[in-house]
Design goal:
The complex is a heterodimer of chains A (202) and B (279).
Chain A (H helix, E strand, L loop, with lengths): L8 H19 L1 H7 L1 E2 H5 L4 H5 L7 H21 L4 H19 L3 E5 L2 H18 L5 H20 L13 E2 L1 H20 L10
Chain B lengths: L1 H22 L2 E7 L2 H5 L13 E4 L1 E7 L14 H16 L4 E6 L10 H12 L3 E15 L11 H4 L3 E15 L4 E16 L4 H37 L5 E4 L3 E4 L4 H20 L1
Parallel strand pairs in B: 2-8, 3-4, 3-5
Antiparallel strand pairs in B: 1-5, 5-6, 6-7
Classes of the chains: A mainly alpha (202), B alpha/beta (279).
């Protein structure tokens, strides 16, 4: 029987703050302008845009679903007390922007929390599957489905769930790959070093 | 002597009748331009419409269509006023993430009845993909009220506002994809200005009412344009067979999970957590 676990308040607060920040960035056009990834502005020295772009969204659906998934996954991670969640988020937020600056010159604007949301979901699934004794079916299923989805999106260069014909923006599967990669990059070394400590679970 | 008096009486009555008629006279003026007259001057020629390829982000041109009738070329809106109105309307397009640049095109670059041949030239000159054509229809009525009797005093014509002016304005924007000749969407804006004036400054007041009418209609248009744009975005999503979307350099990219995947994750994950708690 599993013991009572401590909620990671830091992660919970971080999740709520990130969701609130995304909501503020979506509601205030001036904040959107200051935070969005804008290639030319980044090249002119506004480096923060690489890290703040995930909090910017371009349509109500874009904002709603990205934020719902990120918040749900963040709360779940916080309640389980899985550590290093903020590291996953930091990597998932910054990697896409860096890649776009270095390798995708034709991309002028970018925004969206889906990379961080993917990272949070995958990290939760990995921790639950490998670090707890619970039933793994659901979480393995999510891990597998997500990797299949990303592989198809990347292969076809066409999102299979988001609207490919959306007028607002082009959906970038690379942000999801970065999120998945960030979760693996944080989880695997920790697991191998056996440093990942889940409160009360061995 | 008697016949002289009779003649005087008849002249007096006729004069009074003329003056009264003048007091209750009504005038109307109409100023208009038409996008249909500009695009389809030759009614027998039917333009072939194809599926538009919208290569995002778009360069958008915006222009007033030229007034067709020479009579209307009596400048009701000056070039500066047109520019101000275009700037106001173009602000709505500028806020869109899939719009890269807005070009305000002077009416002088459009020919009367220039049709799509003229738009093709504009497309080449300004490198625009789609064009928003602004047309207007303004009618001004002037009626004289009972107060106009005071004009007999001469000074009354300077101080009493006996002229009732109504200015009805409609501004219409049609947005076309130039290459495919396809109408993407349209939005109207209307206004009604009521005003009183003295006969001495009537034409000045009419000009002011006219300009106010255009600005009020443009404000209304901006609101309607916003709704039309939202409906257009929905249409693009719902009817992919009618619009082809591609992306060129300078596009906007977004990390988006989509509602289906997000909902599936939340439901599956929620069930997973719930079933664990049940045990």
């Amino acid at each position: 029987m599993e013991q009572e676990r401590k909620i990671d308040l830091n992660s919970l607060l971080f999740t709520m703050a990130a969701a609130a920040f995304a909501a503020a960035a979506y509601s205030l056009p001036s904040l959107t302008d200051a935070l969005v990834y804008e290639r030319q502005a980044v090249l002119n020295g506004e480096i923060w845009r690489i890290f703040t772009a995930p909090f910017v969204h371009f349509s109500p659906g874009h904002f709603l679903w990205d934020t719902v998934v990120f918040t749900a996954a963040g709360i779940a991670v916080s309640y389980e007390g899985f550590p290093l969640f903020k590291t996953v988020c930091f990597l998932a937020a910054s990697i896409p922007g860096l890649i776009y600056v270095l390798f995708v010159p034709e991309l002028e604007y970018y925004g969206g929390l889906s990379g961080m949301a993917t990272g949070a979901v995958i990290y939760y699934c990995l921790c639950t599957v490998f670090m707890t004794r619970r039933k793994k079916t659901v979480w393995v299923l999510i891990l597998a489905l997500t990797i299949i989805k990303i592989a198809i999106e990347a292969g076809l260069d066409n999102p299979i769930f988001a609207d490919a014909n959306a007028a607002e923006f082009r959906v970038l599967s690379s942000a999801h790959i970065a999120g998945y990669g960030a979760a693996l990059a944080v989880f695997l070394p920790s697991m191998f070093r056996k440093k990942l400590k889940v409160n009360g679970v061995k | 002597m008697k016949s002289k008096k009779r003649i005087m009486s008849v002249v007096l009555i006729l004069g009074l009748a003329l003056i009264l008629n003048g007091c209750y006279s009504s005038h109307s003026r109409r100023y208009k331009s038409s996008a249909v007259d500009f695009l389809y001057p030759d009614r027998e020629v039917v333009e072939k419409v194809s599926v538009p390829l919208l290569s995002l982000p778009l360069n958008v041109g915006i222009a007033f269509v030229p007034e067709a009738d020479q009579e209307y070329r009596v400048k009701r809106i000056s070039s500066k006023d047109k520019y101000d109105l275009l700037k106001k309307i173009s602000g709505q397009f500028k806020a869109l993430p899939f719009v890269k640049d807005i070009e305000l095109i002077p009416t002088e670059y459009l020919k009367v009845g220039g049709s799509f041949t003229n738009l093709d030239q504009i497309r080449t000159m300004y490198n625009v993909d789609i064009i928003a054509l602004v047309s207007y229809d303004q009618v001004q009525h002037t009626d004289e009220s009972m107060l106009s009797f005071s004009y007999f005093t001469i000074i009354g014509a300077f101080v009493v506002q006996g002229e009732k002016n109504d200015t009805n304005t409609m501004i219409d924007v049609v947005v076309y994809d130039i290459a495919s000749r396809k109408l993407l969407f349209r939005a109207p804006g209307t206004s009604l200005v009521h005003h009183m004036a003295t006969p001495v400054n009537l034409s000045e007041e009419l000009r002011k009412d006219s300009l106010k009418g255009f600005h009020d209609a443009a404000d209304d248009l901006v609101v309607n344009l916003n709704s039309a744009l939202e409906r257009f975005k929905e249409k693009v999503k719902e009817r992919p067979e009618e619009f082809t979307i591609s992306h060129k350099a300078g596009y906007t990219g977004g990390g988006s999970l989509g509602w289906l995947y997000s909902a599936a994750l939340v439901i599956i994950g929620g069930l997973g957590i719930w079933s664990r708690k049940e045990r």
